[in-house]
Amino acid sequence: MEQEACARLESRDGRPAMLEGLVATGELRGLLLEMSVEQCFRNTARTNMEVIYRFPLPWGAVLLGVDVMLNGQHLTGSVVEKRQAEARYEEALSQGQSAIMLERNHDGSYSLNLGNLLAGEVCRITLRYAQVLQFAQDGLRLLIPTVIAPRYGDPVRDGGLQPHQAAASDLLAAYPFEIRLRLHGSLVRARVASPSHPIAVGREESGGADVLVVSLARQGALDRDFVLVIDQLTQPSMAVLAGDPVAASRAEQSDQVVVLASFLPRMPVQTQGQAIKILVDCSGSMAGDSIAAARRALQAVLLQLGSADRFSLSRFGSTVQHRARGLWSMTEASRLAAQRWVGGLEADLGGTEMEGALVSTCALAHGGDSDLLLVTDGEIEAIDRLIDTARGTGHRVFVVGIGASPAEGHVRRLAAATGGACDFVAPGEAVEPAVLRMFARLRSPRLTGLRLVWPEGEGPLWASPLETAIFDGDTVNCFAVFKRLSPGTVRLLGVGPNSTEAQEVACAVLAPADEPQGTLIAAAGDALARMAVMARIQSRSAADAVELAVAYQLVTDRTNFLLVHARAEGETPTQMPDLHTVAQMVPASWGGLGSVVSPGGRFSLPGVCESCSSDALPPPPPPASVIEDDIVLYRRPSSAEPSASTDDDLDALDLPAFLRQAVDDNQPPAAGPALPPGAHPGRTPLALSNWLRKTPRNRWPRTYRELTAIGLGAEVLDWLELVVAVSDPGHWEEETVVTTFLHCLSSDEVHTLLARRGRIDDTARASVQGRHGARVSQPEAQTRDQGQTNPVLAAHILTALRGITAEHWPDAVFSLTT
């Protein structure tokens, strides 16, 4: 489709919407990223407007400055206390003056308020921020968020936002995006790739040294985060120190020194088995690329589990579903069962009730320490409540963030609060590196008593708290402020799981920021000092937090940036501005709306870096696909395809009740009335036998997943998959197991015994086995592959079912030892 034909949001006179696009430029030196992001707004209406735009910044980014160009005139503002800024902003609007206010929202995003932008005026706002990246497992992952995806829950009640800060998403919104990054120093020799965008990579000279330049190979849009992966690096621990010009200007501590210590711990990997509870998000927002990436990630997780490990499988949406009641040992049978379960995952469980799912999963029996591995896009509003709940479970939470625009801040906060860690997988990205990194963290020893030893025993005036957990190969950053500090070595100590004495896990040599070994923060100016103050403010609730933020001009939860521009006489509008909230673009592939992975494979041009490895890409879509640029829009499957619409599919879309269609006759009936006390959950033997005898055999289940759909209990499914299927050295095929089991339950002899409240005896078992023998016309080995009933397997099933009653499955089914 041609660019001109793409849908876009327009004003009534046909001009583009208020936000014209975003241009980002950045410099990456070592672990320090300094970015400038220009947002361009144009009032296309005929009246004066107040434009509100909510946008994300990367996790841990510190806003250093705001520059404004209004109709070519450069304007400056300052950071003031929040209530004061709000009052002055509203007063300026009422007086016909133009005003700009930037505030930090409760969820870590930012809201820009641009008041009294006159008709036809153009305002360019440039944000400058810095971020210290974290080196992880021999590489860096740079993420520039561009869009806030729709989130489950109420943004005001659950997310702590003000009503004007809650921005909606619009399918017709379209905003261009450009980015240009310059990589300095040792990064020039690294390997770079982007799983999110096609990129062009070149070199240029700057100050007598080569610089690696990364830009988009074609124009992007604010519909997905920009991800740049930099690997093949060798990054040692280091510590840099720099002066504090703000403190010097205040004259109270003119010699104050700021230190950033960055450690790269190296610790032995644990050899004993791990207990891991796997919980995967199957809500509607995960449909499409996200659930496909989740399946790939979980398959890779299963390959990392060894015979000494134990695990459980659970998925959630509006409800939570557990594959088993506790943790499985890793055996060949349980691995195959888990792989089948993962392969059948779909985003069909409706909303994202993450808190209840987390509590339910943590409550599964485990008999010792266990960790929770959560696979999700993190798109919920009630993150504060979830974090409080997670802390109380005693589980470390490790998160794999999935999607084109996951809620990075949410999942990082959740992982950090519980002593876990997180990693991310973009659509189309190879999942194996992220899974390997995650298991390296899971198998790192748990250290306690973490502390720093500074040179010559000098103590800092203030130091940021250390992380609650550190992992082998992951950077640990710590800010500190000293009155004076001489060069030397900083040591990181911790107590291991089998030790009572602190041991050194990493050390870093102090160096001035302008020396070659201090390239971490080279030429950063006052950035290091201001980042240290931001860390100090966020780690304390002291009364001087506002004073510090104003002194260092930092936008925090308690301070806003404010700019007031007095209009000349005759230019002042005569009416209050109309309100316009800039809608978010719907993230690419969110909720299954298309795919960010091109069916033709990778985008490649001369001089263009391949965005991801070919073995990470999913197979091409069906011929019914409609392809528009690099977005793939899938038509509804035909009746011949295996995903016919059901009421569960509608639940995944959160449709109102009056739009839902009635369930057709192909939908399996409900599991029946409540079971008597002491009975096992799921369909009773007699209820299953009755249903089978009333249902045509061509509609009987043929897979374990289809057995779940007709209400068979998880315990019976576990028995079929983990015991019956492996009862023969050659292992029975899934369809053969299901078909034989159902034919046994539907037979006249078994049904009569159940209806009369009798029990299976040798006579009934021989009769049923004889019926199966009469049906078989192929050698036994072939029937395993054809999914037909088998007399040998039938005999094994009927022997295990000895003692079955109309309302109870026999104990052998629940022991998993038959």
Question: Overview of this structure, please?
Answer:
The longest helix is centred in the middle third of the chain and has 16 residues, at 289-304. The strands form seven sheets. Strands 1, 2, 4, 5, 9, 12, 14, 15, 16 and 35 form a ten-stranded mixed β-sheet that branches. A seven-stranded mixed β-sheet has the order 27-30-31-18-19-29-28, covered by helices on one side. By secondary structure, it is of the alpha+beta class. The radius of gyration is 30 Å and the shape is globular. Residues 1-9, 11-16, 516-523, 598-680 and 772-786 have low confidence and may be disordered. The chain contains 20 helices and 37 strands. Helix 12 (685-694) packs across helix 16 and helix 17 (762-775) packs antiparallel against helix 19 (791-800). Helices cover 24% and strands 27% of the residues.
Radius of gyration: 30 Å
Unreliable spans: 1-9, 11-16, 516-523, 598-680, 772-786
Q: How is the main sheet built?
A: 10 strands, mixed
- The coarse overall form would be globular
Number of helical elements: 20
Beta-strand fraction estimate: 25-35%
What is the helical fraction, as a range of percent? 10-25%
What is the number of E strands?
A: 37
Structural class: alpha+beta
In whole angstroms, how far apart are the ends?
Answer: 60 Å
Mean pLDDT: 80
